[in-house]
Every structure is written in C-alpha cells, then in structure tokens.
From TrEMBL:
Residues 3-152 form the N-acetyltransferase domain. NCBIfam families: rimI (TIGR01575). PANTHER family: AMINOALKYLPHOSPHONATE N-ACETYLTRANSFERASE-RELATED-RELATED. Keywords: Acyltransferase, Ribonucleoprotein, Ribosomal protein, Transferase. This is Ribosomal protein S18-alanine N-acetyltransferase. InterPro entries: AcTrfase_RimI/Ard1, Acyl_CoA_acyltransferase, Bact_Acetyltransf, GNAT_dom. Gene3D superfamilies: 3.40.630.30. GO terms for cellular component: ribosome.
Amino acid sequence: MTVRLAPLDRADLSRVAELERQLFAGDDPWNESTLRAELDHGNHYLGAYAEDGSLVGYAGISIVGSRLDAEASVHTIGVDPAWQGRGVGRALLEGLLAVADEWHAPVYLEVRTDNAPAIGLYRTHGFTTIGRRRGYYQPSGADAFTMARPARVREEA
C-alpha cells in the first residue's frame, strides 16, 4: 500500500495524540493542545494518509532564522505500528528534509539511543551523531543522541 503525504490537517490532531500515547507511552507523549500549539507557531507538519484517508503517520520540523542563516529541527516522526517497516517514516523524513533544503538549513534532531531503526534511517539520510543527552526523555530517563545533517549547498545555475 502507498501513502499520500500532505500538510497535517488540524482535524487529525486527536489521531496524532492517540498515536503519541501509543508510540511514546513511557516518555510524556504530546497531547492535542501541544500539537495545536506546534501548528499555531508555524512549524511544518506532514501527515501520511492511507488510501482510505486515515492518518497512519505524522512528522514535524521547525525552521528558525532567516534564509541566510536558517537552522531546522525535527520535532517528531511517528508511524502507526501497523504501518511501520513500509517506508512511511522514510517518506515523512524525506518530506521534512525537503523543507529544510528549501531553506538551505542544517538539520538537528534527538533520537533515543536504543532506537536502532530510526538511527539507521537518519544515517542513510546524511545524519551523524554529534552528542548524547543523558536522561533526555522523561519520565523514563532514556538517553538521546543528538544528530545533525549539514545544510545542502545551493547549486548555482
């Protein structure tokens, strides 16, 4: 099955909050009001929609700075467990990176040190580990790697 990526619909925030509770149960999952604030702040969120229109994944990124000195930060990527391993996370990440590339921005993110599939995905997209945040995820106390991908250089015509 394929998915369609589109800007996250506010009507889907309750579904995103449901997935957050399922995916991040041990680590303070985001609720609907937090997700709404992310959109209100102007952060770029994508939804991954199945053929029947149901939301099966979501991802968000923020861009700060101007076009001359922008930085991007991946805030979240989540995929319904029934859809994991089908390329949904990869498609969402690539959608976020396309936004960062429009700004020629380096991209930063945190990922649990025990999340080998996500770490592998990020490495295949040019991310390297630049640090470790001990006890980053709460309340579990799990550590996170900080990873970064350099800005894509503007190509001159």
